[in-house]
Amino acid sequence: MQIYDVCIIGAGPVGLSLAAALQKSKQLNKVLILDSIKKPKFNKQGLPNQRVLSVTQSSREVLQSVGAWDKLEQGRVNPYNRMIIDESNGQDYLEFKNQQAHIIEYDNIVNALLEVYDGEIEFESKLEKIELKPNEYVTVNDKFQCKLLIGSDGNKSKVKECSNIGTYGHSYHQMGIVCTVERTDQDSEVAYQTYLSNGCPLALLPLYNPYSSIVWTAYMDDYKYLMSLSDEEFLKVLNSQLGRYAPRIKSISNKRMAFPLQSLQAQRYIQKRIALIGDAAHSNHPMAGQGMNMGINDAALLANCIIKNSRSGNDIGLEQSLEEYESQAKLMNYTTSIAMELIKNTYENKTISPLRQLGAKIINNLDPIKQIMIQYGSKHPLGPSQFEWVK
Amino acid sequence: MIRIKLLKYFSSTINQADRQNFNKIQDWWSVGGSMAPLYSYNHLRVQFIHEILNRPQKGKSLAGLHSLDVGVGGGILSESLRRLGSKVTGIDVSENSIETAIQHKNTDPELNDSDLEYKLISIEELSKNQEKQFDIITAMEVIEHVENLPLFIESLGKLLKPDGKLFISSINKSYESYLKLIIGAEYIARVVPQGTHDWNNFKTPEQVWLQLNKQKINIDVLRGVEYNLLNGEMKYSNNETQYIMACSKQKME
């Protein structure tokens, strides 16, 4: 039976970042990626895709370190440096300047990472069975064995299910609606987030001109209504709801897509010969667009951990070896989750509305505090401080 | 004079009390167990060995060498050295340790060959029977459990190739080591089982140096190491409460 060092399930940005980092370290012999989807094709000329990601400074550093950043289709990488957060209940707003974030399409990132990673990868190949016998490596699909199996296969992770790792958390009973729209203005440097009267955020994220991507969080009733509308009707509703600072929308460019919002944490991120990263380990509210960034941080922490243990001649599948990853990643992700939950509750709470608006006004005029917020938002203080694969 | 020689001949390096203690340890390889600090120490040990051998820490970096690991415990370092490409012989005097090490070796199919072997034997017995000498000898956290240090070092000297490297790590005999390793680690933080260490048996680097010098072995590098209770990592330190050293034989002119 074929034996791999590491097998990664899921060829998304997170799984691919990990694979690219491991490959770059040249420390492991054999890495394999499996995904059930077809090999994605990125159309460089086509209309933007609905799935876009907000890439923070720390994720950008990871992508740069594996060489994927330069492989991105640069014309479709949109840096934005201002963010305006307001609410339809009040006059006050928050404006963050000097942000260093980018809005990039999901497909663009995946494509760049696939160009960098030239190891073994199998598309249209599903994970069906995991078997872990004593004194053996983990057997996958009765076909091959690996020393460490990594699940980066999303919040319905098959790896998590097969290895009986529990999940706790709750659903927000909300859906996130995404689609691409065409703006009336040509200002691609500002991102807007408006908290609607029921506390749900509606975000307008600038893509390359003249496109923007919207992420509309809606309760189930609103969601059904919004999805049932025709494009023209939806455009009208959208324009009526966008905050007073945001530009108006000219047209809807593609189909609306929706996904359920949950706050989930896997009970363990590791088990003997198993590790979970990205959405497989945790998912939270998308309002700050941190999901993929947290995942990329996971990938960097796990890559560090694997490379370090491999260099020391340890068994990379042992819990002792993986423990460092789990404790670091959990600490980092829990703090982010708690921060998200705090912000969400602050904006949903009607009672403290005047207080919140006063707070917004004060913070908006206190640049030092804003600087700290920007710094923490773009680079997690508990995230990886160095990359073992560039040593 | 003859009596003294005879005494030396029959005496052993085995400290029976410590041997009994090690026979009781059940959690050499359990997560968060009492031996977990050793697992994190292993990173630093392997790094130190590479530094001294002047080999980049990449891939099968120790290929072609034959190592002797004295006092294998659960086999943490022996397994590491084997995975990095070296042939390894591990010895210990505790039956429990050897059993644990063999059992754990079997959990990794990669180690399933004769290039990693464990033997229940004391160092002086091994040096009597064994003609072969080793490129690397490691005695990590062992000499504080050893009786008759002169005999122990003499046996190490016999087994070391003329151009081989000897690595020793241990705990200094000082007030600080009593506070940190016995009161701190065993009684307050409880990261190490009570009774693991006997302060009276700790050795200062000077003591070790004297015995090494008798066997014409030099200490090349001596460094302090420190356990960081906050993140559980071992790192080099100016404080020599715990120390690690690299030694080699003096060149004959």
UniProtKB/TrEMBL annotation, chain A:
Residues 4-318 form the FAD-binding domain. Its cofactor is FAD. Keywords: FAD, Flavoprotein, Monooxygenase, Oxidoreductase, Ubiquinone. Gene3D superfamilies: FAD/NAD(P)-binding domain (3.50.50.60). NCBIfam families: Ubi-OHases (TIGR01988). This is Chromosome undetermined scaffold_1, whole genome shotgun sequence. InterPro entries: FAD-bd, FAD/NAD-bd_sf, UbiH/COQ6, UbiH/COQ6_monooxygenase. The lineage of its organism: Eukaryota, Sar, Alveolata, Ciliophora, Intramacronucleata. Belongs to the UbiH/COQ6 family.
UniProtKB/TrEMBL annotation, chain B:
S-adenosyl-L-methionine binds at residues 45, 71, 92, 140. GO terms for molecular function: 3-demethylubiquinol 3-O-methyltransferase activity; 3-demethylubiquinone 3-O-methyltransferase activity; metal ion binding; polyprenyldihydroxybenzoate methyltransferase activity. This is Ubiquinone biosynthesis O-methyltransferase, mitochondrial. Its EC number is 2.1.1.64, 2.1.1.-, 2.1.1.114. Component of a multi-subunit COQ enzyme complex. Its cofactor is Mg(2+). The keyword Zinc-finger does not apply. The keyword DNA-binding does not apply. It comes from the Eukaryota. Belongs to the class I-like SAM-binding methyltransferase superfamily. UbiG/COQ3 family. O-methyltransferase required for two non-consecutive steps during ubiquinone biosynthesis. Catalyzes the 2 O-methylation of 3,4-dihydroxy-5-(all-trans-polyprenyl)benzoic acid into 4-hydroxy-3-methoxy-5-(all-trans-polyprenyl)benzoic acid. Also catalyzes the last step of ubiquinone biosynthesis by mediating methylation of 3-demethylubiquinone into ubiquinone. Also able to mediate the methylation of 3-demethylubiquinol into ubiquinol. Its main location: mitochondrion. Pathway: Cofactor biosynthesis; ubiquinone biosynthesis.
